[in-house]
Amino acid sequence: MVGTAWLGIGMFLVIRSRFFPVAWQQQTTIPIVSEISLPWWIGVFICLIFVAILEGSFRTNAEMIVRIAELESRFMNRDQRREIRDALSNFLVQGQRLMGLCENESGPPPDEQIGEWETRVEKYLRQKLEPSYLARYQTISVLPNPPKEATGMRSELSYEAWARLRARTTRLHEFIVDFTRDGIG
Predict the structure, then answer these.
(1) Entry pTM
(2) Separation of alpha carbons 81 and 78, rounded Å
(3) What are the pLDDT digits (tens) for 112-153?
(4) Of 148, 141, 173, 181, nearest in space to 162 by CA
(5) Residue 142, SS3?
């Protein structure tokens, strides 16, 4: 729209400003257009410039608003992902500490603490992540564990608790890697 107006006003100004012979001007102009004074055309030209400047500033403003919203979203997403990664790291450290308690066979494995830890992790995954993460976390049978003899554990109960924790912490580590790999830094 504005481009067509620019072209039209430019043609009228060129014809009106007497760059061409009078006979050609009379043949190419509409009679009413040739009677409009040059100051009026200059006024229209200035108005079109003003409209173009306003349109450009509104367009630039709209583009900047969209860009700012994208950046805010990206930073918010980055902060949320960092928060999730930090929480998963804390759960991983807690799980590794519980694994250490299982390896110390001086007493029974801390089944109650392990159960509470698993419940907290599952609750967090359910609240903060999509269901596929919870499903992956709960699917531990596909992860291989070393044989009990290779771990040096004598107690079958301690080994089972340790192996379950090892599988769960392995999954948490995978999740942390996923969140780090996706551009969180």
Answers:
(1) 0.59
(2) 5
(3) 999 999 999 999 999 988 898 899 888 877 667 776 666 666
(4) 148
(5) coil
